[in-house]
Amino acid sequence: MTGDERSVxxxxxxxxxxxxELEAERGLLVERLAAAVRQEAPAPPINVExxxxxxxxxxxxxxxxxxxxxxxxxxxxxxxxxxxxxxxxQTAILEGHxxxxxxxxxxxxxxxxxxxxxxxMVRLWDAASGRPTAVLEGHxxxxxxxxxxxxxxxxxxxxxxxxxxxxxxxxxxxxxIEGQQGRxxxxxxxxxxxxxxxxxxxxxxxxxxxxxxxxTAVLEGHxxWARAIAFSPxxxxxxxxxxxxxxxxxxxxxxxQRSILxxxxxxxxxxxxxxDRRxxxxxxxxxxxxxxxxETGMQIAILVAHTDSVWxxAFSPxxxxxxxxxxxTTVRLWNPATGRLTRxxxxxxxxxxxxx
Length: 356
Known about the structure:
Blueprint: H1 3-40, E1 46-51, E2 59-64, E3 71-75, E4 79-83, E5 90-95, E6 101-106, E7 112-117, E8 121-126, E9 132-137, E10 143-148, E11 154-158, E12 162-167, E13 172-178, E14 184-189, E15 196-200, E16 205-209, E17 214-219, E18 226-231, E19 238-242, E20 246-251, E21 256-262, E22 268-273, E23 279-284, E24 288-293, E25 299-304, E26 310-315, E27 322-326, E28 331-335, E29 340-345, E30 349-354
Antiparallel strand pairs: 1-30, 2-3, 3-4, 4-5, 6-7, 7-8, 8-9, 10-11, 11-12, 12-13, 14-15, 15-16, 16-17, 18-19, 19-20, 20-21, 22-23, 23-24, 24-25, 26-27, 27-28, 28-29
């Protein structure tokens, strides 16, 4: 890494630390507002209620359990929250990370939830009880992404530029893969587990053989950071997105670019395929979620409700729901067939009504 690159990274780290401080201050202000409302609210006929279920800072990740009955969200407030997507009820708050939580993934059997954060730790949780089961240490920087293979191998990646593979039952790191230049922002396994893909600050998508850690292809096209990647359910298409504002579709074998989807006004932070592989969702800095026809590359819908940047997307296993989350601290649920917003999770608001 050159001196200029180190300087940029240092400035980014300083900026992110300041953002964290501001988010903590915002949390304190919310608490003080709640206290003021409780102490100063007038007696009936005016009733004032503060509702504050949900995250108090930027939501970085959302993921559905394999059975679709649980939605997990991870945020800058240091918590992971579990939700019932059918009712919108918050069912658990998982606390343990020291700092922002940036990543979350369920194992294929749904029994384990893995999370990663700014404390450099990968934490494992019993998905049913919310009980912590293990802490995996090894990364020298922030953990920005976690992903399970079909056989249960866990991959993690982050600020130290390494992709680590873990044996979950023993907690042993079985491999530390290097080659991406700069931060690794995302990792994902192909549906059959034979390919591990990573995306990073060097703008490339790299494909690895998880069996031996060898790099099998380098996909070049993005002109700035590559932030997100996703395999289609059949493994035939790899989608990537980045700071250049584009979404790109690739043939993983032999690693050729198929098409470029352009419509976002700024960087794109997340991509997700529908279970039937026909629709791709993308989201980013322009506050929108966009739906694309994978076969034609045509944009088919724009979903607007978030009031700030959108960081994360996830389809439910049955394809009936699309979850989005981001800078406005909310998780929003959509009907992808109609584009209708069906529920907002974690919105903070003051509500008042006139009594009799």
